[in-house]
Amino acid sequence: xxxxxxxxxxxxxxxxxxxxxxxxxxxxxxxxxxxxxxxxxxxxxxxxxxxxxxxxxxxxxxxxxxxxxxxxxxxxxxxxxxxxxxxxxxxxxxxxxxxxxxxxxxxxxxxxxxxxxxxxxxxxxxxxxxxxxxxxxxxxxxxxxxxxxxxxxxxxxxxxxxxxxxxxxxxxxxxxxxxxxxxxxxxxxxxxxxxxxxxxxxxxxxxxxxxxxxxxxxxxxxxxxxxxxxxxxxxxxxxxxxxxxxxxxxxxxxxxxxxxxxxxxxxxxxxxxxxxxxxxxxxxxxxxxxxxxxxxxxxxxxxxxxxxxxxxxxxxxxxxxxxxxxxxxxxxxxxxxxxxxxxxxxxxxxxxxxxxxxxxxxxxxxxxxxxxxxxxxxxxxxxxxxxxxxxxxxxxxxxxxxxxxxxxxxxxxxxxxxxxxxxxxxxxxxxxxxxxxxxxxxxxxxxxxxxxxxxxxxxxxxxxxxxxxxxxxxxxxxxxxxxxxxxxxxxxxxxxxxxxxxxxxxxxxxxxxxxxxxxxxxxxxxxxxxxxxxxxxxxxxxxxxxxxxxxxxxxxxx
Amino acid sequence: xxxxxxxxxxxxxxxxxxxxxxxxxxxxxxxxxxxxxxxxxxxxxxxxxxxxxxxxxxxxxxxxxxxxxxxxxxxxxxxxxxxxxxxxxxxxxxxxxxxxxxxxxxxxxxxxxxxxxxxxxxxxxxxxxxxxxxxxxxxxxxxxxxxxxxxxxxxxxxxxxxxxxxxxxxxxxxxxxxxxxxxxxxxxxxxxxxxxxxxxxxxxxxxxxxxxxxxxxxxxxxxxxxxxxxxxxxxxxxxxxxxxxxxxxxxxxxxxxxxxxxxxxxxxxxxxxxxxxxxxxxxxxxxxxxxxxxxxxxxxxxxxxxxxxxxxxxxxxxxxxxxxxxxxxxxxxxxxxxxxxxxxxxxxxxxxxxxxxxxxxxxxxxxxxxxxxxxxxxxxxxxxxxxxxxxxxxxxxxxxxxxxxxxxxxxxxxxxxxxxxxxxxxxxxxxxxxxxxxxxxxxxxxxxxxxxxxxxxxxxxxxxxxxxxxxxxxxxxxxxxxxxxxxxxxxxxxxxxxxxxxxxxxxxxxxxxxxxxxxxxxxxxxxxxxxxxxxxxxxxxxxxxxxxxxxxxxxxxxxxxxxxxxxxx
Lengths: 558, 569
Description:
The complex is a heterodimer of chains A (558) and B (569).
Chain A: E1 4-9, E2 13-19, E3 25-27, E4 37-38, E5 41-45, E6 48-51, H1 53-57, E7 66-67, E8 81-83, E9 86-88, H2 90-109, E10 115-120, H3 126-138, E11 142-148, H4 149-156, H5 163-166, E12 172-179, E13 184-192, E14 195-204, H6 209-227, H7 238-254, E15 260-267, E16 270-277, H8 278-305, E17 313-317, H9 324-334, E18 339-340, H10 346-370, H11 385-395, H12 403-411, E19 413-415, E20 422-427, E21 433-439, E22 447-454, E23 463-469, E24 483-490, E25 502-509, E26 515-521, E27 528-531, H13 533-537, H14 540-551, E28 554-555
Parallel strand pairs in A: 1-10, 6-28, 10-11, 12-17, 14-19, 17-18
Antiparallel strand pairs in A: 1-2, 2-3, 2-4, 5-6, 5-7, 8-9, 12-13, 13-14, 15-16, 20-21, 20-23, 22-25, 23-24, 25-26, 26-27
Helix pairs in contact in A: 2-3, 4-10, 6-7, 6-8, 10-11, 11-12
Chain B: H1 16-30, H2 38-41, H3 51-67, H4 75-92, H5 95-115, H6 120-131, H7 137-149, H8 154-167, H9 200-217, H10 227-231, H11 239-255, H12 260-277, H13 281-307, H14 312-324, H15 330-340, E1 350-357, E2 360-366, E3 374-380, E4 386-392, E5 396-399, E6 407-414, E7 417-418, E8 422-423, E9 475-479, E10 484-488, E11 495-501, E12 515-520, H16 521-527, E13 530-531, E14 539-549, E15 552-555, E16 564-567
Antiparallel strand pairs in B: 1-2, 2-5, 3-4, 3-6, 6-7, 6-8, 9-10, 10-13, 11-12, 11-14, 14-15, 14-16
């Protein structure tokens, strides 16, 4: 059975890992020996590109053809990066990153990377998750699952081995503070009863290390302009913009260990050398840190509604959580003693462990099916304990694992929650359209809700059903605040039914996060079924073109 | 049967840097998306009528906008342009709609040009009415000065005077209706990249930049000038009301989808916390008023120009503008208008110099040639944070908390109007002096001879009580109910020693039974006095004046009745 690799597709850096022969996750280096690789693509021609550090290095010399921070554009169908007369969508650019990672890792792993688990911020909505899935497919990979970054971090941190998980010991709660390059996630996880349960999640994907860099770059530009009045502003020039951002990022890194650093920036033949202290950085970015603290309060509030009043462990994940002020603020605000948890690599490692679990599940299930111990509609958990043990005993030796190890990994459940509310567009008493939510953020998956609505007029022959997803951090009735995921019609309703006739809407989301909506009217035999996948299915033709376009792209050597 | 597409020649490609400089910078300087049109935004020559060419250009420029979505200077503008794109696109690609839009745009450009003269037109008309075409040369010179502040050249002003003099009753203004030549309106100076710190002055600038960004992002919503306007509150709203408004806005903001406008509002709400709730809202509003002063200066100058004074009606109009358009409270608005209309500003002081002074830095300057001025001294750190040291009529002040690289800015003020700032020599870098070493005097060079801290050439500010080793005592010591002490500083005295005892009056500056604290005039002015540490019982307080003799601080042992008080519990 092929290895399932884990990929952390980050805003600024990406990383790929697998579980090695000794059962521990290992991060795979590229041909240059790098384990974290800049998520940067430079288009060198209409059909050619370079990826990673070499693209990153050219940001200054060829700024208009270098694409970075593409993850922030996932889920924006209109977005294109235009280079050499061609426009690329966010999934297309991301697919180049994934394909390059996979190709390089295949060399160092000695096996082809085909099946992968890709991580996404917990706070990603449906559209962004689908865009990520599509990026994987464009790259020619088989996406076994998409999992949340904080969950992956928790898995890699050994929580699969936690007493609470393995032996159903006392409950343990873990807060994962994940400040990445472009996104911030806060997740509270409970380990209990043989399961990893996500209790609450919140975040902001307009908040990450790149915003810290920006505040610093703006300050450098201000000092430069003050020293050289009358010279063109740096941000009017692409090359200078990149140079100031690169200098800012380097200074930020320096300041994680030093109290001050000297920065030199050049533009238009002028140069400014200036000192940035850690307290300068703190003052400049205080509002950003305050926003992460606000979101942490919000997640803790949700956790309290689920009966969790204390946090046993706090993990700092994401490269930006290295900034000393993060741990300081968490201590002063909440009294947390946060642990820096291998912040750059842990997510990819967790994805690899999860990939291993998915691979083992598949094999155990295959054994059970082959032995006719379960049928194709059953879950592994439906198997009798003896049959399960027998299947595990067959699978374990193939992986140099003990039956106990395989049984433990397969048995552990990872229970997720909804990261957004879902609902339908309805009419209020005044006839205004509004978002009516049936499920809510932080509800545990799977979720199934049925609600009744009424037709609006007598003899109504058609009903329009529009499915919406919460767009912001809190639910809003305003349609503009929300995302339209799918719409469809119940047609051919015979006349004779008065206004107010019952229309039943059922919303169902399984563990896989695929949303299904059905609606039925008493006058129509077949209920209308809207699977939200169909929201993008109408773009299948376009997706096929995009896939073909990306298939022609040639990677140039670094 | 399939038709092959008609071949066409696209417009020459435009480079992002060139597009930024030629289009985005100009649009931003004029105020953003409301001040542009599709021909300018898509860099589309007026004569192009081919829809395929237009469509290709729109796609090309949209690609440039997308690339600038992470550019801190242009992000808000390009996001607004991207929102507007589809509507413009459909109008431009439909010949009928394009024609109608063309006419609208020509009229808009004309109106925009007219608006530049909005403030000056009544003044020019008034002068023409009184003097005919023979506007007195002193008035004309002042008019040119004011016009220059609106980026109007002498030629443009002359043209306008001719137009308003009646010769051009038709009101032609150059760019005729229907013409879509590139908009040559000269932009106001580019917006400097916004600085970001939590110091009130830098914080106020950051707030303004974020509020401007927010207005670019949400052009159809109200524009705000201050944090208080954002919250819908008066400047003197109680803290509880501020907190409630923040909570409400934060709640509403959390409902918005996670885009740049939401992040901008979140940043602003964090600044409310830093500048208003945790910080000193008066200092924040003072910083706002300082910014408004610069922005309103030409307008007030124009209003004063006609009658050489501000008429009541003009004052009311300007007051309303300072309050309604710039978000000032009535008190600050009144002070500001009076300051700006008070006549020529005083001459600036000169030769600002710094030298180490004990643990602090002594800032000195040569007095302004204008008489009866007061000086306001601000310490600017390299990071751009500004700290007001105080106000004094003397020519020196002590900075008790000097930092390396600090630049001192001294402004002379009289009758509400301020001189241009004078800055300390570059770079003064006063570093705290090392602790006095018990070695030979040669080991401790006199600060004035230290090459890194040169004493300014020219006259050294002389103590007014020439020859006296100690300064005159302070007078008028009193305390308010919050136990804040105030007193009058004699000329030349920059430091005072406050001593206090519970059991009786302090007997001298070195009374071992008394507690004591050295207070500089800078610290005093910043805080508006000095607050005694909390105590239950009554305290006997004495304030001793100090004067520097070289690096030695000498206390005046005399402490007359007027320099003592008893503070009630």
